[in-house]
Amino acid sequence: MAMPSRYRERLLEICGGRLVVTVDPDTCLLVYPLPEWEIIENKLVNLPSLNRRVKSMQRLLIGHATECEMDGQGRILLPTLLREYASLDKKIVIIGQGKKFEIWDEGAWNDSQESLLESVQDDEGELPAALQELSL
To answer: Which end of the chain, C or N, has fewer beta carbons within 10 A?
Structure first.
């Protein structure tokens, strides 16, 4: 899969095209520039591993982490295991998320967005404090 040119140039600048791809519990893939992944990995490794949920997340994220390098055209080769995990078929969606990207199967992305919009519109609960302070 090829990265859009606006991302490709920035990634070459930030990390020389060296990326880490791992899985997300939402059945998409997470793509980090190598320096950003090293920060995440360090935080994950330093969490209390006796907590079952922490251990599960460590196994999921660190255990599936795979280094990939962009070629001259900004493409990366995703290992079969990761493609199968995210059910990536012919059409994918790449979503920028600040310091990382998400790679989704197009159908799964569309389904998740419909569910997300419904939950946001129906949710009358209190926003977390961090979001209440955010100005958009």
So the answer is: C
